[in-house]
Amino acid sequence: MGSNTGALILGIVGGIFCVITIIPGLILLWKLIVKPKLFKNSPQKYRGKNTYAIITGAAGGIGKAFAEKFAKEGFNLIIIARREEILKEMKQEFEEKYQINVKVIANDLIFIDKENQWNQIEKELKGIDIGVLVNNVGMCQYLPGKFGDIDIKDINNMVSLNIRVLTILTHIIISIMIKRKEKGLIINMSSATSFVPFPMFQVYAASKAFIKQFNDSLYSEYKEKIDCICYCPWYIKTEMTKIRETSIYVLEPEEFVEYCFLFFGQQNHIDPYWFHYLMDIGAWLYPTDIFGSMILSMQTFVRQRLLLKLQQKNKK
Ligand SMILES: NC(=O)c1ccc[n+]([C@@H]2O[C@H](COP(=O)([O-])OP(=O)(O)OC[C@H]3O[C@@H](n4cnc5c(N)ncnc54)[C@H](OP(=O)(O)O)[C@@H]3O)[C@@H](O)[C@H]2O)c1
């Protein structure tokens, strides 16, 4: 979903800006390094006697990394995704390794509005102490394209999964969390595309902006009882990005989750990895129309390459 040089240039421009203008540099140092070290909140503060963390999109990528990290911290898990086999393997592995209970919900969340499935999920959660909700599940269409060229089915699926599912599940869980003695934690996975124009992935980017906006309001509403935090990263090596190699701007999901764990209860939203943060600053320095045009030409190139690949595949 992007070019290597583009990402490097953003990070370097952000870095140079921070060095030559002392104030943003100091803010960056405070926000990303000093504050998390001084005020790091242990996830144990969200844990009671028999507490569960519920993670959507847990069968791979960032969701799986969150699941394992909370399992290590002693949380029981409710893991949700479509591939039941993978979820069952995770259940067996984590129950043995971390002496916890794992519940599996294998469900295509896109279709959850049909046949009263929300009621079924609510039933499964009844009487369970839920300390953590990780709203991780999300999707993006395969082929970048101008809005008129995006398949209606993809638009529907993105809006359903990235917005509707997250909103309704959060509504259900908040009514459970608010009654707890301990504080609750809600993690919302947005993206750096939430604050820059992202042509050719316009629906995905707008859905991620919804998540950030939604999170920041919940953060203020529930501060006393629930910590809401939204993460807005650039590139992580997962099935979604199809990036195969890590680099200074591409993290392994496990590394990314380690960074996320530094920021609970500290602020409403953050890009938790320092180089991604420099990329944010680099992006903010561009006028949005220039930034949008750059992304448009990059993604037009990516689209042409993918179309060629598809044509060659169809010929075989
Ligand atoms: N990777 C990045 O660079 C990046 C950057 C910024 C933000 N994000 C955000 O981070 C989140 C996780 O991304 P990722 O890269 O880890 O994605 P991923 O590798 O594609 O993993 C998505 C997870 O969601 C599950 N899933 C997908 N569709 C589903 C459906 N219809 N119903 C239920 N489960 C479903 C998948 O398992 P099944 O296939 O078994 O269902 C998988 O466990 C997303 O919200 C994404 O927008 C990612």
TrEMBL record:
The keyword Iron-sulfur appears for this protein: no
Transmembrane segments: 6-30
EC numbers, comma separated: 1.1.1.5
GO molecular function, one term: oxidoreductase activity
Keywords associated with the record: Membrane, Oxidoreductase, Transmembrane, Transmembrane helix
CC terms in the record's Gene Ontology section: endoplasmic reticulum
Gene3D superfamilies (UniProt xref): NAD(P)-binding Rossmann-like Domain (3.40.50.720)
Stored SUPFAM superfamilies: NAD(P)-binding Rossmann-fold domains
Family indicated by similarity: Belongs to the short-chain dehydrogenases/reductases (SDR) family.
Protein name: Estradiol 17-beta-dehydrogenase, putative
Organism the protein comes from: Entamoeba dispar (strain ATCC PRA-260 / SAW760)
